[in-house]
């Protein structure tokens, strides 16, 4: 919140005997829910007395209301974020190594740091194409997923790369440490993904979902888990996590999608073991194929080492 709007008005005759929340909504153009919240928070007074939402108004009484102003959840907050590394930068694009715990851009319900806010704070000019809170953004990584991603600086780069992602002409490679041993060791998951029927923050394989294709190859097989290289053909939200869970091999540490909490504790993970290791595409200016990669962050490397050492 930033400041508040204080209002003092006499109750008009037409609202006499109306409920407080109903009267507030009609006088100030608020929703009934918002008006009820103000009364619940003790921000509404009638002739100097704090009133509840269901109390009745009386004509001529002095109504005092304090309406806190709420920050726009999509406003980009310029803030330098520790841990964001610049992998490559030129006049067209900037490629970063995104750490865990950082969103790509602002969204309702998220109040933490963002990639867009960091780049603005660092003085990096970003393309103005796209919605205001995600200008220059052509791809996203989950807050809980780390790794390499590209942001566009020029309008031309945004147009070219946005189209490349749409045409699936981008090589997106992830490494995932999953529980158990997938059978077969190399394969493709072709299963549509949609929102979970009971949890709107989760996704699931659904017949009415959007087409989603994930290719995987086992790099290492250990006693409790396997390290996979994953190539995404599509780019649905939580795609790798949902598909691995559907195979009964969730990412280690991914408690949202069925991972074993005991194993997560044993390897010291507080998030899913998933990292975007490599990104390849035709450079929007030169047309040459470029490829950028990052190494595992410390928490994932330590967890992998513990899995390797398990006997």
UniProtKB/TrEMBL annotation:
SMART domains: S4 (SM00363). Gene3D superfamilies: Pseudouridine synthase, RNA-binding S4 domain. Residues 18-75 form the RNA-binding S4 domain. Its EC number is 5.4.99.-. The active site is at residue 142. Keywords: Isomerase, RNA-binding. SUPFAM superfamilies: Alpha-L RNA-binding motif, Pseudouridine synthase. One of its GO terms (biological process) is enzyme-directed rRNA pseudouridine synthesis. It catalyses: a uridine in RNA = a pseudouridine in RNA. InterPro entries: PsdUridine_synth_cat_dom_sf, PsdUridine_synth_RluA-like_CS, PsdUridine_synth_RluC/D, PsdUridine_synth_RsuA/RluA, RluA_PseudoU_synthase, S4_RNA-bd, S4_RNA-bd_sf. It comes from the Bacteria. It is an enzyme of class 5 (isomerase). One of its GO terms (molecular function) is RNA binding. PANTHER family: MITOCHONDRIAL RNA PSEUDOURIDINE SYNTHASE, RIBOSOMAL LARGE SUBUNIT PSEUDOURIDINE SYNTHASE D. Belongs to the pseudouridine synthase RluA family. Responsible for synthesis of pseudouridine from uracil. This is Pseudouridine synthase. The lineage of its organism: Bacteria, Bacillati, Actinomycetota, Actinomycetes, Propionibacteriales.
């Amino acid at each position: 919140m930033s400041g508040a709007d204080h209002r003092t008005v006499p109750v008009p005759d037409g609202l006499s005997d109306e409920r407080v929340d109903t009267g507030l909504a009609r006088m100030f153009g608020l929703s009934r829910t918002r008006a009820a919240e103000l009364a619940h928070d003790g921000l509404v007074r009638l002739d100097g007395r704090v009133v509840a939402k269901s109390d009745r108004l009386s004509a001529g009484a002095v109504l005092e209301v304090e309406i806190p102003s709420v920050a726009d959840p999509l406003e980009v907050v310029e803030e330098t974020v520790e841990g964001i590394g610049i992998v490559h930068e030129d006049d067209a694009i900037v490629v970063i190594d995104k750490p865990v715990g950082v969103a790509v851009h602002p969204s309702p319900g998220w109040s933490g740091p963002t990639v867009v806010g960091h780049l603005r704070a660092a003085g990096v000019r970003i393309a103005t194409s796209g919605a205001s809170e995600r200008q220059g953004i052509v791809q996203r990584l989950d807050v809980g997923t780390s790794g390499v991603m590209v942001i566009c600086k020029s309008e031309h780069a945004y147009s070219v790369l946005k189209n490349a992602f749409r045409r699936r002409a981008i090589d997106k490679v992830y490494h995932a440490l999953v529980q158990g041993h997938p059978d077969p060791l190399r394969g493709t998951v072709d299963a549509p993904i949609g929102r979970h029927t009971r949890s709107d923050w989760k996704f699931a394989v659904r017949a009415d979902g959007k087409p989603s294709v994930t290719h995987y190859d086992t790099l290492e097989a250990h006693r409790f888990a396997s390290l996979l290289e994953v190539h995404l053909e599509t780019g649905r939200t939580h795609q790798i996590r949902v598909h691995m869970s559907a195979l009964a091999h969730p990412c280690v540490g991914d408690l949202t999608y069925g991972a074993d909490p005991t194993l997560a504790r044993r390897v010291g993970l507080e998030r899913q073991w998933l990292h975007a290791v490599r990104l390849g595409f035709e450079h929007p200016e030169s047309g040459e194929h470029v490829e950028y990669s990052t190494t595992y962050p410390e928490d994932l490397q330590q967890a992998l080492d513990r899995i390797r050492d398990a006997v």
